[in-house]
Amino acid sequence: MIRIYLLFFLIATGYALIRKFLSLSPLKRKQYFKSLGIACLIIVLVLLGMTGHLNWVLALIGVVTTFLLRSLPILMRYAPQLHQLWRSFKKTASSNTESENVDSETFTNSRSAKNSGMTVTQAYKILGLSSEATKQDVIQAHKKLMQKMHPDRGGSDYLASQINLAKDLLLKVLK
Prior knowledge:
The protein has eight helices and no strands. With 175 residues, it is mainly alpha-helical.
């Protein structure tokens, strides 16, 4: 008999929660889901701990921690690219909230110049050119530096990206 009461209680509670959920605004729904998810996670962890079935979770945490620690040097090698990817993700997320119709080519071109913070003077210095350089000089200097600094030839990904960014910036200026 207690099972029937428990089942009835669960159905009534579920019905009430669904009605409350449908009457909320989207922002409140998001907050509600977040708090509900955290509460469910805590309840599941407590139940697993009380029944003695928490061992596999702790073992999984140990395996993931070991994997991350061993792959940290590899991840740090790509830190500049990951940082740039994160900045572009954040900029994309903020631009999507401002306007939905963004031309992707314009966004990519403006992003590379704005996010880098590179000036024309810095671009000339990176490529080892003077301010009187022509478009052909920029292309030749870029080609020569990329032969030395390309990641496939033992160079740094970060330096290669800076050289490419300098070339792109100077070619835009020299148009």
